[in-house]
Amino acid sequence: MDVVKKDISERPPSTDVQPTIVSSVVPDFKDVSSEDDISGYVPDTDLEKRLVRKLDLLMMPTLWLMCVLAYVDRNNIGNAKTAGMQDALDLTSSRYAMLITIFFIAYVILEVPSNLILIRVRPSWYLPGIMIAWGALVAGISQIKTYQGILVIRFFLGLIEAGFMPGVMFLMSCWYKKHEIGMFVRSSKKAFPGANNSLQPFCCEIGKRFSIFFTALCIAGAVSGLISGAVIAGLEGSHGMAGWRWLFLLEGVITIGVAMICIYILPNYPSTSLRFTPEERRLAEIRVLYDRKLHETHQSMKMNPWQAFVAATLDLRTWFFVVLYILDNGVATISYFIPTVLDDMGYSGDRAQWMTIPIWIVATIFLVGVSLSSDRTQDRQWHISFGMGVATISGIIIVAVKNSAARYAFICFYMAGVYCAFPLILIWTSETLSLPKEKRAVAIAIVNGIGDLASIYGSRMWPSNDAPDYKPGFIAVIVMCGACGLIAAAMPIVFRYLPQINSEVEREAEVIEVARSFRSDFTYTMYTFTED
Q1: What is the DSSP letter of 2?
Q2: Residue 163's domain spans which residues?
Q3: CB distance 480 to 334 below 8 Å
């Protein structure tokens, strides 16, 4: 066999020349206009400002209201328990814990599959559709006469609600950028091509919206207490039905009504939403791609559900966020028992319902303040650690003091510290595991889904025989809050030394990226093999 060596480095110089790569994994890059649009994107134009304002007025209030109702319907069992449900259904401490546990077992089963479905369907139908379904189940609880019947409904409620929260977070990440160009602080880093090198964006566009969205969790607690107090005081025994049954019926009907309206308001994805003009849709896609520094390799790297699942699970960073969320969710399970804890502290009857409202108002104010600070400084780790530190100190004081008023005050601060970390963990996850979108969707669902498993053991941390102090439960959450804060503080350092384990699809994408980075000033040598 003869080997003929040919030097072909004397080709005409051109920055457009690309090497020919014979590989089944290299796609044909023809979407030049899309590349030109992304590279030519000018941030902070009047059109973009109008687009963001339109999003803020159309999508954010809709999703926020849907989230409020989701958490009202999920957590109203705690209000119903102290309003007569416990006696009517002979709910022991273990039975009540099982009603909470069964919801999250079902929730975890369907959370990832539901997000994979959402990628392929219209959010404007899917999210309100599952909302109608869970509203019907909640209303149905009002007619159930046995503990076993409510247990079955709680299981199906978990299955249906599983797709809501991760779906909402994924939809928001498809519309909003990480950085809000146009507001800057001094830095040595470049903000975007052509910008002043001494300036960089400090506001996190999606971060602010995530934080606003997560105030719905706290507001839901206040709304639930307000509705419960009013319904139990005004409708107890009306038409022969107990107040706690009226509570489920009215909240379920309200949910169904709101969901039907949301079908006509909620936008779909940027490329398909008819709520926006073609020009707005194109800009919405381009600005998000530009913000994430999306190259053609990532555009061409489409993952099927299994590939996305493998990519997300192989990325070790996913599991650090899972641990954070498990710890935060575990210490937040007291939210299902707050009316019971207050009842044992001496605030009985409908007064226990009203007393939950200030707790959630304090948590809302704290969440907004911490989130705004986190966005301004572009920091996640220390703000999560700060919230967990507040919760840890508050827990210690709750255990140490006996005065009911003092304990109540520090329960407010405890809940504030715990709940301010929720949006920051999920924002951090979305920012760190941002590409490709299929992997991001699965990673968010994994963190949210497995994190919710904490409610299975967390619901058993507050047995009635520990009343009125619930010391073992508070000691457990003190330890968990401290651990969560320490892990959050250490994560950026740990990430630097984590081995990078990519899935097969991601490895192929890296080959494409390397191939496309070749320049024409290289020396190209071709070997031709011929038979004698």
Answers
A1: E
A2: 41-501
A3: no
Per residue in 331-388, pLDDT (tens digit) is 999 988 888 888 888 887 678 888 888 999 999 999 999 988 988 888 899 999 999 9
407-85-141 Cα angle (round to 5): 120
Backbone angles phi, psi at 179, to 5 degrees: -105, 140
Q: Is 30 among the domain residues?
A: no
Mean pLDDT of 110-130: 88
3-state secondary structure of 185: strand
Decide if 455 is inside a domain: yes
β-strand pairing of 2-7 with 525-530: antiparallel
Whether 7 is covered by a domain: the verdict is no
Evaluate whether 162 touches 105 at the Cβ level (below 8 Å).
Answer: no
Q: What is the CATH number of the domain that holds 405?
A: 1.20.1250.20
Residue 484: Cβ within 10 Å count = 29
The dihedral built from the CA positions of residue 496, 498, 503 and 508, taken in this order, carries a sign that is positive
> pLDDT digits over 138-196, tens only?
999 999 999 999 999 999 999 999 889 888 888 988 898 876 543 333 333 333 333 33
Give the mean pLDDT of the chain: 80
Predicted pLDDT of residue 182 = 36
The C-alpha torsion from 139 through 143 and 148 to 151, rounded to 10°, is 10
Domain count, the chain: 1
Tokens of 429: 């996850």
Confirm whether 173 is domain-assigned.
Answer: yes
Say what the alpha-carbon torsion angle 340, 346, 347, 350 is, to the nearest 10 degrees: 80
Measured from the Cβ of residue 58, the count of other Cβ atoms closer than 10 Å reads 16
pLDDT of residue 109: 86
- Cα 243 to its chain centre, rounded Å, is 34
- Identify the DSSP state of 240: G
CA distance 16 to 8: 17
Contacts of 275 (CB under 8 A, 6+ apart): 58, 267, 268
CA-wise closest residue to 260 among 128, 124, 157, 136: 128
Question: DSSP characters for 197-239?
Answer: TTEEE--BHHHHHHHHHHHHHHHHHHHHHHHHHHHHHHHTTGG
- What gap in Å lies between CA 330 and CA 395, rounded to an integer? 14
Q: Residue 208 has which token pair?
A: 């602010």
